[in-house]
Protein backbone atom coordinates (compact mmCIF):
# COMPACT_ATOMS: atom_id res chain seq x y z
CA UNK A 1 0.00 0.00 0.00
CA UNK A 2 2.83 2.37 0.81
CA UNK A 3 4.42 1.82 -2.61
CA UNK A 4 1.14 2.36 -4.43
CA UNK A 5 0.54 5.55 -2.45
CA UNK A 6 4.02 6.74 -3.42
CA UNK A 7 3.27 6.19 -7.10
CA UNK A 8 -0.05 7.97 -6.82
CA UNK A 9 1.67 10.91 -5.16
CA UNK A 10 4.34 10.94 -7.86
CA UNK A 11 1.67 10.99 -10.58
CA UNK A 12 -0.28 13.66 -8.77
CA UNK A 13 2.69 16.06 -8.84
CA UNK A 14 3.85 15.22 -12.35
CA UNK A 15 0.31 15.12 -13.67
CA UNK A 16 -0.42 18.64 -12.49
CA UNK A 17 2.77 20.00 -14.08
CA UNK A 18 2.21 18.17 -17.36
CA UNK A 19 -1.46 19.19 -17.51
CA UNK A 20 -0.56 22.85 -16.84
CA UNK A 21 2.15 22.84 -19.51
CA UNK A 22 -0.18 21.23 -22.04
CA UNK A 23 -2.98 23.66 -21.17
CA UNK A 24 -0.73 26.70 -21.69
CA UNK A 25 0.57 25.29 -24.98
CA UNK A 26 -2.94 24.62 -26.22
CA UNK A 27 -4.08 28.11 -25.26
CA UNK A 28 -1.20 29.63 -27.23
CA UNK A 29 -2.07 27.47 -30.22
CA UNK A 30 -5.73 28.47 -30.06
CA UNK A 31 -4.86 32.17 -29.93
CA UNK A 32 -2.62 31.77 -32.97
CA UNK A 33 -5.25 29.75 -34.81
CA UNK A 34 -7.84 32.53 -34.54
CA UNK A 35 -6.05 34.31 -37.37
CA UNK A 36 -6.23 31.27 -39.66
CA UNK A 37 -9.32 31.08 -41.88
CA UNK A 38 -8.36 28.29 -44.27
CA UNK A 39 -10.81 25.42 -43.78
CA UNK A 40 -10.02 23.54 -47.00
CA UNK A 41 -9.34 19.78 -46.85
CA UNK A 42 -5.71 18.96 -46.07
CA UNK A 43 -3.43 16.19 -44.84
CA UNK A 44 -0.46 16.01 -42.52
CA UNK A 45 2.11 13.54 -41.26
CA UNK A 46 4.45 13.84 -38.30
CA UNK A 47 5.68 12.70 -34.89
CA UNK A 48 3.71 12.42 -31.65
CA UNK A 49 4.98 12.32 -28.08
CA UNK A 50 3.04 11.94 -24.87
CA UNK A 51 2.43 10.31 -21.52
CA UNK A 52 0.10 7.50 -20.57
CA UNK A 53 -1.12 5.97 -17.33
CA UNK A 54 -3.73 3.48 -16.11
CA UNK A 55 -5.29 3.04 -12.65
CA UNK A 56 -3.36 -0.23 -12.09
CA UNK A 57 0.01 0.69 -13.61
CA UNK A 58 3.02 1.42 -11.43
CA UNK A 59 3.72 4.96 -12.67
CA UNK A 60 3.44 7.50 -15.46
CA UNK A 61 5.09 6.42 -18.74
CA UNK A 62 6.28 8.22 -21.86
CA UNK A 63 5.30 7.08 -25.33
CA UNK A 64 6.04 8.11 -28.89
CA UNK A 65 4.89 7.46 -32.42
CA UNK A 66 3.67 9.01 -35.66
CA UNK A 67 0.34 9.90 -37.22
CA UNK A 68 -1.12 10.52 -40.67
CA UNK A 69 -4.20 12.74 -40.57
CA UNK A 70 -6.52 13.70 -43.44
CA UNK A 71 -9.03 16.53 -43.17
CA UNK A 72 -11.71 15.32 -45.59
CA UNK A 73 -13.97 18.30 -45.01
CA UNK A 74 -14.20 21.22 -42.58
CA UNK A 75 -16.23 19.00 -40.22
CA UNK A 76 -14.72 15.53 -40.66
CA UNK A 77 -11.31 13.86 -40.76
CA UNK A 78 -9.52 10.53 -40.40
CA UNK A 79 -6.30 9.58 -38.66
CA UNK A 80 -4.05 6.54 -38.72
CA UNK A 81 -1.28 6.24 -36.14
CA UNK A 82 1.27 3.85 -34.69
CA UNK A 83 2.92 4.18 -31.28
CA UNK A 84 5.28 2.40 -28.94
CA UNK A 85 4.43 2.11 -25.26
CA UNK A 86 5.64 0.23 -22.19
CA UNK A 87 3.87 -0.40 -18.91
CA UNK A 88 4.39 -2.17 -15.57
CA UNK A 89 1.90 -3.66 -13.14
CA UNK A 90 2.04 -5.13 -9.63
CA UNK A 91 5.37 -3.54 -8.77
CA UNK A 92 7.10 -4.76 -11.94
CA UNK A 93 5.82 -8.35 -11.77
CA UNK A 94 4.13 -7.76 -15.14
CA UNK A 95 5.88 -5.77 -17.87
CA UNK A 96 4.27 -5.02 -21.23
CA UNK A 97 5.57 -3.61 -24.50
CA UNK A 98 3.07 -2.84 -27.23
CA UNK A 99 2.85 -1.32 -30.70
CA UNK A 100 -0.69 0.07 -31.05
CA UNK A 101 -1.95 0.64 -34.59
CA UNK A 102 -5.00 2.90 -34.39
CA UNK A 103 -7.64 4.28 -36.73
CA UNK A 104 -9.59 7.31 -35.56
CA UNK A 105 -12.52 9.31 -36.88
CA UNK A 106 -12.44 13.02 -36.05
CA UNK A 107 -15.36 15.43 -35.90
CA UNK A 108 -14.67 19.20 -35.90
CA UNK A 109 -17.42 21.29 -34.26
CA UNK A 110 -15.02 24.24 -34.66
CA UNK A 111 -12.15 24.64 -37.15
CA UNK A 112 -9.48 23.98 -34.50
CA UNK A 113 -11.37 21.72 -32.06
CA UNK A 114 -12.22 18.06 -32.60
CA UNK A 115 -13.72 15.04 -30.94
CA UNK A 116 -12.17 11.64 -31.66
CA UNK A 117 -13.40 8.05 -31.56
CA UNK A 118 -11.79 4.94 -32.98
CA UNK A 119 -10.31 1.49 -32.54
CA UNK A 120 -6.84 0.00 -32.31
CA UNK A 121 -4.98 -3.28 -32.67
CA UNK A 122 -2.47 -3.91 -29.87
CA UNK A 123 0.33 -6.41 -30.46
CA UNK A 124 1.80 -6.78 -26.98
CA UNK A 125 4.78 -8.65 -25.54
CA UNK A 126 4.24 -9.54 -21.88
CA UNK A 127 6.97 -10.59 -19.44
CA UNK A 128 6.00 -12.17 -16.11
CA UNK A 129 8.40 -12.09 -13.19
CA UNK A 130 6.70 -14.53 -10.85
CA UNK A 131 7.49 -13.81 -7.16
CA UNK A 132 9.87 -16.28 -5.44
CA UNK A 133 8.40 -19.63 -4.42
CA UNK A 134 9.72 -22.34 -2.09
CA UNK A 135 12.97 -22.53 -4.09
CA UNK A 136 13.48 -18.74 -3.77
CA UNK A 137 13.89 -18.37 -7.53
CA UNK A 138 12.19 -15.81 -9.70
CA UNK A 139 10.53 -17.39 -12.71
CA UNK A 140 10.44 -15.28 -15.87
CA UNK A 141 8.01 -16.27 -18.61
CA UNK A 142 6.76 -14.34 -21.59
CA UNK A 143 3.98 -14.40 -24.15
CA UNK A 144 2.51 -12.26 -26.92
CA UNK A 145 -1.11 -11.19 -27.02
CA UNK A 146 -3.11 -9.45 -29.71
CA UNK A 147 -6.03 -7.36 -28.53
CA UNK A 148 -8.49 -4.90 -30.02
CA UNK A 149 -9.40 -1.83 -28.02
CA UNK A 150 -11.38 1.32 -28.65
CA UNK A 151 -10.82 4.90 -27.62
CA UNK A 152 -12.42 8.31 -27.48
CA UNK A 153 -11.26 11.81 -26.65
CA UNK A 154 -10.72 15.25 -28.09
CA UNK A 155 -8.18 17.96 -28.76
CA UNK A 156 -7.06 20.81 -30.96
CA UNK A 157 -5.50 21.08 -34.42
CA UNK A 158 -4.04 24.52 -34.98
CA UNK A 159 -2.37 25.51 -38.28
CA UNK A 160 1.23 26.65 -37.71
CA UNK A 161 3.81 27.34 -40.37
CA UNK A 162 3.92 24.55 -42.97
CA UNK A 163 1.77 22.20 -40.92
CA UNK A 164 -0.39 21.92 -37.83
CA UNK A 165 0.20 21.65 -34.11
CA UNK A 166 -1.97 18.95 -32.54
CA UNK A 167 -2.64 18.06 -28.94
CA UNK A 168 -5.25 15.82 -27.37
CA UNK A 169 -6.25 13.48 -24.58
CA UNK A 170 -7.77 10.04 -25.18
CA UNK A 171 -9.08 7.27 -23.00
CA UNK A 172 -8.43 3.71 -24.21
CA UNK A 173 -10.48 0.65 -23.29
CA UNK A 174 -8.20 -2.40 -23.41
CA UNK A 175 -8.42 -5.77 -21.65
CA UNK A 176 -5.36 -8.02 -21.21
CA UNK A 177 -5.39 -11.52 -19.76
CA UNK A 178 -2.84 -11.73 -16.93
CA UNK A 179 -4.10 -14.96 -15.37
CA UNK A 180 -0.61 -16.44 -15.14
CA UNK A 181 0.07 -14.17 -12.18
CA UNK A 182 -1.75 -14.78 -8.86
CA UNK A 183 -3.70 -11.74 -7.72
CA UNK A 184 -3.85 -10.17 -11.18
CA UNK A 185 -7.65 -10.36 -11.40
CA UNK A 186 -7.91 -6.77 -10.19
CA UNK A 187 -5.40 -5.36 -12.69
CA UNK A 188 -7.04 -2.92 -15.11
CA UNK A 189 -5.21 -2.22 -18.35
CA UNK A 190 -7.43 0.63 -19.56
CA UNK A 191 -5.38 3.80 -19.84
CA UNK A 192 -5.45 7.42 -20.91
CA UNK A 193 -2.84 9.23 -22.94
CA UNK A 194 -1.99 12.92 -23.31
CA UNK A 195 -0.06 13.66 -26.50
CA UNK A 196 1.20 16.54 -28.61
CA UNK A 197 2.77 16.61 -32.04
CA UNK A 198 3.41 18.49 -35.26
CA UNK A 199 1.96 17.27 -38.56
CA UNK A 200 3.79 18.53 -41.63
CA UNK A 201 1.44 19.44 -44.49
CA UNK A 202 1.30 17.04 -47.42
Overall description:
This protein has one helix spanning 2-33, and strands at residues 42-53, 61-73, 76-89, 94-110, 113-130, 139-160, 163-173, 191-201. Mean pLDDT is 81; it is low at 1-8 and 33-37. 16% of the residues lie in helices and 58% in strands. It is elongated, with a radius of gyration of 19 Å. The termini are far apart. It has one domain: Porin (Beta Barrel). Strand 2 (61-73) and strand 3 (76-89) form a beta hairpin.
Task: Give a brief rundown of this model.
This protein has 202 residues and is of the alpha+beta class. It has one helix at 2-33, and strands at 42-53, 61-73, 76-89, 94-110, 113-130, 139-160, 163-173, 191-201. Helices cover 16% and strands 58% of the residues.
Supply database-style keywords.
elongated, 202 residues, Porin, 8 strands, 8-stranded antiparallel beta barrel, alpha+beta
Write the layout of secondary structure elements.
Layout lengths: L1 H32 L8 E12 L7 E13 L2 E14 L4 E17 L2 E18 L8 E22 L2 E11 L17 E11 L1
Antiparallel strand pairs: 1-2, 1-8, 2-3, 3-4, 4-5, 5-6, 6-7, 7-8
The CATH architecture comes to Beta Barrel
How many beta-strand runs? 8
Please indicate the count of domains: 1
List low-pLDDT spans: 1-8, 33-37
Mean pLDDT reading: 81
Helices and strands: which structural class?
A: alpha+beta
> Radius of gyration in whole Å, from Cα?
19 Å
| Percentage of residues in DSSP E strands | over 45%
Order of strands in the sheet with most strands? 1-2-3-4-5-6-7-8
The CATH class assignment is Mainly Beta
For the biggest sheet, the summary is: 8 strands, antiparallel, barrel
Distance between the termini: 50 Å
* Bulk shape: elongated
DSSP helix count? 1
- CATH fold naming: Porin
Q: Portion of residues in helices?
A: 10-25%
Secondary-structure element pattern, one letter each = HEEEEEEEE
Amino acid sequence: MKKKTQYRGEWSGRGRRISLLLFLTLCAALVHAQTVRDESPRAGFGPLIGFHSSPSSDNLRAMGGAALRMRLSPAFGLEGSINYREDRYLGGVIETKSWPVMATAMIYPLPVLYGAIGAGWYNTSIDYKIPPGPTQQVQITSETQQRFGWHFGGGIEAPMGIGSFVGDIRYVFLDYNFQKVPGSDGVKSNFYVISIGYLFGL
